Amino acid sequence: AAHEFVFARLRYDSGDWDYNPKVAANMLDSVVQYTSIPVYAEEIVITADSPELLSFPFLFMTGHKLVRFSAKERDGLVKFVDKGGLLFSDDCNHDVDGLYAKSFEDEMRRTFPGAGTLAKIPARHPLYRSFFTFDGPPQTSHELNGWGDDMVHDYLRGVERNGRLGVIYSNKDYGCEWDYDWRNKRFRTKDNTKFAVNVVVYTMT
């Protein structure tokens, strides 16, 4: 239904798109716990060139390896974003020098050419206030100080279209951070999926 949040995962032929298989169930559990947004209970897998892509508000993408899109897939992503969809791309390498990072960034420059491609998302952005309040993106336990670029990633990057984020790009490895059985969340002293709720609320409002 149009008012439902659906977790759609992007399948791309060049890399390990199906990594972190438990992310969807964990994110959906958090949305149900904290919000009144109705959810579709199953993960949907879809390609960027599918005509059905425009039916979904949110698209999750992850991996470690090469990212390569066809011209038709790039065109599909542009249409998806321009229709209000949000692509959340998370680099499992949490590394600016890794293959996923370099190839994904190259694809974004091809797909969304311009000076604002993958610009830093400021800490004051509505994304960090859409539900819970954060002073920028929360750090993950998988993120290492000095891994690859001699810094902790204290910002996300994105592509803005028509005054709204259409792409969120993370080197922080949220995929691994959220890749656990949602039923084990009750044993954690701190819920590390709260930022996922912000992403969903921003997507749906």
What does this structure look like?
The chain is an alpha/beta fold and 205 residues long. Helix content is 25%, strand content 17%. The protein has helices at 23-34, 71-82, 99-111, 174-177, 194-204; strands at residues 8-10, 44-46, 58-63, 86-91, 119-121, 156-161, 164-170. The protein has a 7-stranded mixed beta sheet with strand order 2-1-3-4-7-6-5, with helices on one face. α1 (23-34) links the parallel β1 and β2 (44-46). The longest helix is centred in the middle third of the chain and has 13 residues, at 99-111. The radius of gyration is 16 Å and the shape is globular. The chain starts with 7 loop residues before the first strand and ends with a helix. The relative contact order is 0.20.
Summarize the SSE layout with pairings.
Layout: E1 8-10, H1 23-34, E2 44-46, E3 58-63, H2 71-82, E4 86-91, H3 99-111, E5 119-121, E6 156-161, E7 164-170, H4 174-177, H5 194-204
Query: What class do helices, strands and sheet pairing give?
Result: alpha/beta
> Outline, from the CA principal axes?
globular
Total E-strand runs: 7
**Low-pLDDT stretches:** none
Calculate the mean pLDDT score and round it.
90
- Helix/strand order: EHEEHEHEEEHH
Integer-rounded radius of gyration:
16 Å
Number of helices: 5
What fraction, in percent, of the residue positions are helical?
Answer: 25-40%
Largest sheet: number of strands, sense, barrel closure: 7 strands, mixed
